[in-house]
Specification:
By secondary structure, the chain is α/β, with parallel strands linked by helices. The protein has 2 domains: 23-28 and 317-461, no CATH class; 29-316, no CATH class. The chain has helices spanning 2-12, 99-111, 137-143, 148-167, 242-254, 286-306, 340-345, 347-360, 387-396, 419-423, 432-435, 443-457; strands spanning 24-32, 37-44, 66-67, 72-79, 86-92, 117-123, 170-171, 173-180, 185-187, 204-211, 217-224, 238-239, 259-264, 270-272, 311-312, 315-324, 365-373, 376-380, 384-385, 401-405, 415-416. Strands 1-16-17-18-20 form a 5-stranded mixed sheet, with helices on one face. Strands 6-5-4-2-7 form a 5-stranded mixed sheet. Helix 2 (99-111) packs across helix 4 (148-167) and helix 5 (242-254) packs across helix 6 (286-306). It is globular, with a radius of gyration of 22 Å. It starts with a helix and ends in a 13-residue tail after the last helix. The mean pLDDT is 87.
């Protein structure tokens, strides 16, 4: 035991180093001018009945029993109406995006002659959708057995929605806004040690509305930094879109012909909630009433943007890079007192475990992307970005509106936590988020630095003083 303690002491003396991200295979896209257009499309990606017996909802093992609500792939195309280069944003009502799914969607677009499209592919992160499209040992442990027919069904839906959007582009104006959503977001697990109250969360809902020249609504982008968890394990085996799907349905019902995309914000550690009882709300039972209330309250907050004046779409830009990931550095115990000693003594064991996971199962690189639409910047990461990281990015990126996005173009980083969030959570204290932070305490600084580098590619700087640099 004495020898082991000395080994632990030596291991703990190794200084932490923030790895500097390397941006490789950088791809940029930019369209400017007064003739930019937008198009929208939508396709049903609900599993057909003949697939139900071979699929399960995320986190469940029993077969799917039906549809509570349909789920969709929704697409927004931006750029020159006659040009080949376009930016395409696709939002799918599923739990995750995988790299294989992204590549398959790009392949489907290429077969249709769309080889020059720049793609941002996101999941709404509903936890009541099928999880059987993540191929591989890790994905199948999390989501259930891989189903090639459902994977192909997802790809067909996403490509179909994209084709609709690309074929029907027209001039638009753009309105953007942000609003506080009091009582709609709470921290899932962390409490402030001094007060015992739930930790601070970003509660802002972001909205962007695209209007045709006749004033009617063409499409919307909405983002909220909160997990859709109301329906997890509460649908009796039926597929549902949770609050993102219900919010999109409400917007589309009020605006025939419009398509409403939902983009998940920096939602790590945060979940959507609603005040008071909701059973029976709008005639919906139990948790479905909660989802209906969440959607209604969000719609009320973004109504001024959806109905407000806009300005012409004059700039669309994207910068995307493949970023080699740092070595896996997950630790399984908190670093803050009184657990510091436990963390100290398990350091070498964690190091060996991380090496094995890194070598056998986990990815070596990830796709990061920054998109600019007029004065709004979207920072897209293949991970669950924590609410703390989201707050810092909104403060530090130099743009009028900043939207940090989770679950974009893959899920290669797991959770990305800020340093203090990492210190104050762990398995002993119920910190699921820390367990899923694969790159350890440096994942937050690494991710922010990668995003700062990409933002510069689209002409966006960072608003930092030297002491703030992560």
């Amino acid at each position: 035991m004495g020898i082991y303690t000395l080994v632990c002491l030596g291991y703990s003396a190794i200084p932490d180093r923030i790895p500097e991200p390397e941006l490789t295979q950088v791809a940029t896209f930019k369209a400017t001018g007064n003739s930019l257009s937008a198009g929208v499309g939508r396709a049903d990606i609900s599993p057909p009945e003949e697939m139900w017996g071979h699929l399960n909802l995320f986190g469940e093992r029993a077969p799917i029993r039906g549809l509570a609500t349909p789920i969709y792939a929704r697409a927004l195309a931006l750029g020159e109406p006659e040009g080949e280069d376009r930016l395409l944003i696709i939002s799918c009502e599923v739990t995750f995006i995988t790299r294989d799914l992204r590549q398959a969607v790009l392949g489907g677009l290429a077969r249709g002659g769309r080889r020059d499209v720049e793609l941002l592919l996101v999941a709404t992160h509903t936890h009541a959708a099928p999880g059987n499209f993540w191929k591989g040992w890790v994905g199948e442990r999390i989501c259930g057995s891989f189903s090639q027919p459902y994977f192909d069904h997802l790809v067909t839906g996403a490509v179909g929605a994209a084709e609709q959007a690309l074929q029907n582009m027209e001039p638009v104006t753009v309105a953007v806004g942000t609003s506080r959503t009091y009582h709609l977001v709470k921290h899932h697990s962390r409490v402030e040690p001094t007060t015992g109250e739930r930790a601070y969360c970003d509660t802002r809902v972001e909205a962007m509305a695209f209007r045709r020249t006749d004033g009617t609504l063409l499409g919307t982008l909405v983002s909220l930094p909160a997990h859709p968890l109301a329906l997890m394990h509460k649908t009796a085996g039926r597929v549902a879109g949770d609050y993102p799907g219900e919010l999109s349905r409400l917007i589309e019902a009020d605006n025939p012909g419009a398509v409403a995309l939902f983009l998940p914000g920096a939602l790590g550690g945060a979940r959507a909630t609603s005040p008071g009882g909701s059973d029976g709300y709008r005639g919906q039972p139990d948790r479905f009433g909660k989802v209906a209330m969440q959607a209604d309250m969000l719609l009320e907050r973004i109504a001024p943007v959806l109905g407000g004046p806009g300005r012409p779409l004059q700039e669309v830009a994207s910068a995307r890079a493949v970023v080699p990931l740092p070595p896996i550095d997950a630790h399984f115990f908190p670093e803050a007192a009184p657990f510091t000693g436990i963390r100290f003594l398990t350091g070498p064991v964690s190091w060996l475990t991380n090496g094995l996971l890194d070598a056998l199962f986990l990815p070596d690189e990830a796709i990061f992307q920054v998109v600019k639409v007029n004065d709004t910047v979207l920072l897209a990461v293949p991970a669950d970005l924590s609410t703390g990281i989201g707050v810092k990015l909104k403060r530090w990126v130099e743009a009028e509106y900043v939207w940090p996005l989770s679950h974009a173009n893959g899920y290669d980083l797991g959770y990305v936590l800020d340093a203090d969030e990492y210190d104050l959570s762990g398995v002993i204290k119920g910190g699921y988020e820390r367990l899923m932070d694969l790159c350890g305490k440096q994942s937050g600084p690494f991710t922010m630095r990668a995003l700062f580098g990409l933002a510069q590619q689209v002409g966006v700087g960072k608003n930092l003083v030297p002491k703030d640099l992560p």
